[in-house]
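Pilot study result, target chain (126 residues):
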Amino acid sequence: MTSIPRKKNYNQLFLECYTKEFPCVTCSINESNYTFCLCCACDINISSGVSMADHAGPLFRKMFRKSEGAKKHGCGRTKTVAKISEMADECQSYLADMLKTTPFSVATDGSSDESTLYPKRFTNQK
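Predicted structure:
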């Protein structure tokens, strides 16, 4: 019986440079994949960048209390994933069209114990 390899999980960790760029967040006293929002006084799980979208609406409503746009903002994780997926589809189509008309190269590693590369050049010439 063969086992299905599990996908490796990469979690985002808080970095001090985040506070420099966004002064409203700081290191959480919880796990290293959380940040503390000084505006909302709550911890935010940043292990996945998309999960932070769940926090955006409540944060905007607290930061911009008089803004009608902030009150109506509703773009949590589900809508964000849908937007990212749509953008990926468009980029993939654009890239495929571009590669059909532009020469490009690909280099593959021939072995895990050597650094030998096998480059290939592709063109649309027949």
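One observation from the pilot: The chain has a mean pLDDT of 80. A full batch analysis is planned for the follow-on phase.
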